[in-house]
Design a protein that fits this description.
- The chain is an alpha/beta fold.
- The chain contains 8 helices and 7 strands; from the N terminus they run E-H-E-H-E-H-E-H-E-H-H-E-H-H-E.
- Helix 2 (36-48) links the parallel strand 2 (27-32) and strand 3.
- The protein is globular.
- The structure holds NADP nicotinamide-adenine-dinucleotide phosphate (NAP).
- NADP nicotinamide-adenine-dinucleotide phosphate (NAP) binds at residues 7-14, 31-35, 38, 59-61, 88-91, 111, 138, 140, 183, 185-186, 188-191.
C-alpha cells in the first residue's frame, strides 16, 4: 500500500489532490481541521476514484495534536510509511497590516509554518529510511511577489518557499524531493466572495484556475519521472505573475 497524507483535504485544493492521487493508487490520509462532513465527501470521492482512505483530523498548527495523530498512525502501520506528503492546509485573514490584530498575524503564520514543521518533521526519518519520499508545499503567488492586504499570508507563504528550498537540499541524497506550488486565483471556498469578474481581467488567461489544474501538477511532481526536480516553486496562475 502506498500512503499519501494531504493536509487540508476536506475541501478545495486538498480534495482535488486527494482524488487525483487516489486515481494513481494511493491510499489517502485525509487531514482537516473540523469539517468532518466535508472530509467524508472527500473520502467518498476517493473511493469513487478507485482507491480508499482514512480521515485524520488534527490542527496542523497544534504540535501535540499533530504528533499524537501521526504517532498513532505509525504505531498501527508497522513497516509501512507515508511516502507522499502535501502540506496544503492554509487560511487567509486579509487586512492591512496597520489594522491587523496580532491573532490574525499569528494564526496565519502558525498554520503554514508551524504546520509545515509539525507534519513534515516526523515523516522525514521514515522517508529517509525507505530512500523515497515526495513533499509538496502549497505556497502562493502571494509568497513570491507579496500582496497588499496579505502581509501575514505573504510572510507565511514566503517562509514556506524558503523552507522548501532548504529542506530539498537536506534530503536530496535520500531520493526525497521537496517542491512548492504557487497558485494564483483558484476557484475554492478560499476565493469565494472575491470579485471574480474584475480579478479575471488582471489575469492574462482571463479566468480563475480550477483545483483539478493544481492537482494535476501535484501528480506530476510526485511521479518517478519528476525525481530530479527538487527545491522548485511551480507557479500555476494563468500568467498573473511570472
Ligand atoms: P479552502 O477551500 O479554504 O480549504 C482549506 C482547507 O484547509 C480545509 O480542508 C480546512 O479544513 C483545512 N484547514 C484549515 N486550517 C487547518 C488547520 N489548522 N489544520 C488542518 N487543516 C486546516 O482552501 P483552498 O483554496 O483549498 O487552499 C488550499 C491551500 O492552497 C492553502 O494553503 C491556500 O493558502 C493555498 N492557496 C489557495 C489559493 C486559491 O486561490 N484557492 C491560491 C494560492 C494558494 P476544514 O474544512 O476542516 O476547515
Amino acid at each position: 500500500m502506498k500512503y499519501a497524507l494531504i493536509t487540508g483535504a476536506s475541501r478545495g485544493l486538498g480534495r482535488a489532490i486527494s482524488v487525483k492521487l487516489a486515481t494513481l493508487g494511493y491510499h489517502i490520509l485525509i487531514n482537516y481541521a473540523g469539517n468532518t462532513a466535508a472530509a467524508e465527501e472527500t473520502l467518498q470521492e476517493v473511493r469513487q476514484a478507485g482507491s480508499d482512505g482514512d480521515l485524520m483530523p488534527f490542527d496542523v498548527a497544534n504540535a501535540e495534536q499533530t504528533r499524537t495523530a501521526i504517532e498513532a498512525w505509525q504505531d498501527a502501520h508497522d513497516g509501512e510509511y507515508i511516502e507522499v506528503l502535501v502540506n496544503n492546509a492554509g487560511i487567509r485573514r486579509d487586512t492591512l497590516l496597520s489594522l491587523m490584530p496580532a491573532a490574525d498575524w499569528a494564526r496565519v503564520l502558525s498554520i503554514t509554518l508551524d504546520g509545515f514543521y509539525n507534519v513534515t518533521q516526523p515523516l522525514l526519518m521514515p522517508m529517509q529510511f525507505h530512500k523515497f519520499g515526495r513533499i509538496i508545499n502549497m505556497a502562493s503567488v502571494s509568497g513570491l511577489r507579496g500582496l497588499p492586504g496579505q502581509t501575514n499570508y505573504s510572510a507565511a507563504k514566503g517562509g514556506l518557499i524558503a523552507a522548501t528550498k532548504a529542506l530539498a537540499q537536506e534530503v536530496a541524497k535520500k531520493n526525497i524531493t521537496v517542491n512548492a506550488i504557487a497558485p494564483g486565483f483558484i476557484k475554492t471556498d478560499m476565493t469565494e466572495g472575491l470579485d471574480e469578474a474584475a480579478l479575471s481581467k488582471t489575469i492574462p488567461a482571463g479566468r480563475f484556475g480550477t483545483p483539478e489544474e493544481v492537482a494535476a501538477a501535484v501528480a506530476f511532481l510526485i511521479s518517478p519521472q519528476a525525481g530530479y526536480i527538487t527545491g522548485n516553486v511551480l507557479s500555476i496562475n494563468g500568467g498573473l505573475y511570472t
